[in-house]
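Many groups now describe folds with learned vocabularies. In that spirit, our science desk offers one protein's residues alongside their backbone shape tokens.
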Amino acid sequence: MSEEQVRALEANLGTGLPAQYRSFLLHVGAGEPAPTTV
């Protein structure tokens, strides 16, 4: 997710997200699966 998307989510929820979860969403939670190696 982008910073803008996270801020919009926080606004919709009416509260800030915990720092670790926020970091997860910004760096890992991009919604795209990681490539796999066989």
